[in-house]
Model the fold of this input.
Amino acid sequence: MNLKKRIAELNRNVADAATSQKARKLRRILIAVGAPLLFLGLFGLIINAVSFMLTQSLSLPIAFLRIMLFMLCGAMISVGCWLLAAALAIIVGGAATGFMGKQLGMRICSCGAQYHDTDKFCPKCGKENITVCPCCNASVSPEDTFCRNCGTMLR
Done:
């Protein structure tokens, strides 16, 4: 097996994982949970720090509660950062495989599957890969919705 085919095969598996509907849904959930956790943790940490600086004397129970609040806010910040990093890894993985696929002559269908430029149909959903305008026979890109030469709608 030659190197270009092997790279394309490996890239196809990663692209499917990074651009699938499940990955998109997971990415949205990670961002929706991670960002508020991060900001709430930072807000709580700032409020606690300001409150700590403004008070003159502290009793032991109050000091203990403040330390616990600092730890809770720090944990929220850590978990929020971890969730956002996981979402970013999915985004970067999808972008990297998309770039690599273009270098290898691969395309990603709207269903998330990756196919070669020369394929007539998507191997996953069966969507037609139009490479020539049916009206004027001009060469078109698979991402085009309209022909750049005559304006005919392609999909």
User: Anything to note?
Assistant: The first strand starts at residue 106 and ends at 108. The chain has a mean pLDDT of 78.
